Amino acid sequence: MLQQVRGAHRYIGSSSSNAKRAVQHLDPAEVPPKLLFVTSEMTDFVKVGGLGDVSSALPRALRQTNDIRILIPGYRQVTGGREIALVAELAPFAGLPACSLGRIDMADGLVIYVLVCPDLFDREGTPYADKNGSDWVDNDVRFARLSFAAAEIASGVPDLGWKPDLLHLNDWPASLAPAYLSWRGLDVPTVLTVHNLAYQGLFPRERLPVLGVPDSSFQMEGVEFHGNLSFLKSGLYYASHVTTVSQTYAREITTPEFGCGLEGLLQTRARQHALTGILNGVDESWDASRDPVLPASFTSTNLKGRSINAAQAREAFGLGVSRGPLFAIISRLVHQKGIDLAIRAAEDFVQKGGQLAVTGQGDPSLENAMLDLAKRNPGKVGVKIGFNEAEARCLFAGSDFLLMPSRFEPCGLSQMYAQRYGSLPVAYRTGGLADTIEDGETGFLYSEMNLSALMNAVSRALGAFASRSMLLRMRRKAMSRPHNWLHSSRRYNHVYEVLLGVR
Question: Residue limits of the Starch synthase catalytic domain (predicted)?
C-alpha cells in the first residue's frame, strides 16, 4: 500500500530508536557520515545474484558507524503488499519520467528509499529481464532513472530532510550517478563497487538525448565504449573511487585477460590510487550451529549432524545411499561458472564412487546438458533446475565438496558458505576464490583453466576423502575461517573517510 506523506518523514515501525542504538557507542560530538547505498537488488526484497546478498548485509554492517540508507527501484517484489510512505516527488528529466520516492523502515531500523515508478518497475520478471529471460528493452531508461534519482538525492531533496555526504553505487545500473553529478557541477564523493565487470550496461549512442547524457561526454575519456554508451565505464571514469569485491580481482581487471576492454581505464584508476579490492563477507545466518532450516545442526568440534544433512540432501536429489563423496554444484549454470568442465569431470568421478547434486539455472543448453548427465547416471547425479534456499543450505551442510570451476569469479560467496558448513571447495585459482581458499587447507585450487587441471584437483579431494583424519582437519579449519562483514566494513569505512577528508 502506498501512502502519500509530503514534507515530512513518516516512520513505520521503530526505526528512530533503532537508528540511535546503532550509533550510540560514538562520541556524542561526532556526527556519523550520511551514506546513500544505491543498488538494483537486495535479498530482503529481490535477488538475482551475489549483489542482492551484499546489498542486504553490507549496509547493516556499516550502520555501526554511519547513517546509511538504501535506494532501490520500486519493483513489484518491493512494493507489493507493503505500506510505503511517499515522501518526495522527483521531476522528469530529458526522457526520464517523473517518479515518487517512497520509504520503508525495516524492522531493524534500516531505511529504504524506493523509487516508485510503476511504468518502469512494476513488472513480472526479474529486475533486469522478463519472465522469459529477455532483457527489458528500456533498461537504459529504467536504470538511468535510478542513477539520476541518486544524483538528485545527493543534490538535496527538501522533502526528505536528509542529504547524503557520499554515494555508494553498485554495478552498472547505478553507474551513471557520478556522471550526472559531474555534469551538474556537483562535488559529492562517490564510490562505485564493481561486482562483475562483465556486465557493463551497453546501449546505442542514439539513446544519449533520452537519458540526458551530453554529447560532449561521448568520447574515450567519458562514456563511450566501442561506439556505444557504457553505463559502467561512465562510473569507472567519473566516480571518486572504485572498489571491487576481492583483492585478486582488483588486480585481474587491470589485465587484458579479465579487463573486458576496460583494463586501460582501470590501470589509470589504479595508478591514481582510486581502485581498491575489498573482499565480501557473508551474513551471520550462515552458522551451522543455529541455522533453523538445516535438518540437523553441528559445529566444527562436533560434526555428527553433517551425516543427517547429507542423507537429507541425497534423498532430495534422488541419489542412492552411499559411503562415497558427495559433490555439489550450487550455481548459475552459465559458461563463466565452468559448468561445461564440471560435467566432464563428473563423468569421471561418479565412476569412482562419487555422487553429484546440482541446483541452479541459467543457460538452457547447460541446463539440458546437466539433465542429460543425470539421465546417464541415475542415482549418482541429481539435478534440480531452479533454486530453493533451504535445499541449497542443506546441500552446503551435507556435501563433502563444492565444485566451483569458475573461469573468473570477482568474489564468490558460495565457497564461503560451503566452508562455513564444512564442505570443501574445489575451484580455479582466480579472483575471490584465490583470496578465500587455502589450497590443501580449506579447499583445493588449480591454476590452469582446463579439464586436466580440474581433474587433478578433484583427485586430491578424493585423496583427502580417503584420509578421514585429513578430511576432518580440513573441515574444521574451513569452518573456523573468518568470513564476517566486520573486516570488510572497516575497509569501506577507510575509503569513505579518505574521500570525506576525515583522514
Answer: 34-267
Pick the closest to residue 150 from 235, 233, 36 (CA basis).
Answer: 36
To the nearest 5 percent, what fractions of the chain are helix, strand and coil?
Answer: 40, 20, 40
CA 387 vs. chain centroid, Å, equals: 16
Domain 305-480 in the same topology as domain 14-282+486-499: yes
From start to end of 307-432, where are the E strands?
Answer: 326-330, 355-360, 381-385, 401-404, 424-428
Q: Looking at domain 305-480, which CATH architecture does it have?
A: 3-Layer(aba) Sandwich (3.40)
Q: Is 47 annotated as a binding residue?
A: yes
Per-residue pLDDT tens for 30-54? 789 999 999 999 999 999 888 999 9
Strand partners, 2: 84
What are the phi and psi torsion angles at 308 (to 5°)? -70, -40
The tens digit of pLDDT for each residue in 278-309 reads: 999 998 889 999 999 999 999 999 999 999 99
Which residue ranges make up each domain of the chain? 14-282+486-499, 305-480
Q: Confirm if 244 and 250 have CB atoms less than 8 A apart.
A: yes
Q: Are 106 and 44 in contact (CB under 8 A)?
A: yes
Q: Where are the beta strands (DSSP E) in 52-165?
A: 67-73, 84-90, 99-105, 111-116
Give me 221's grid cell: 575519456
Q: What is the pLDDT of residue 2?
A: 46
CATH number assigned to the domain with residue range 14-282+486-499, chosen from the 4 options 2.60.40.10, 3.30.470.30, 2.60.120.260, 3.40.50.2000? 3.40.50.2000
Between CA 151 and CA 499 the distance in angstroms is 17
CA 74 remoteness from chain centre: 19
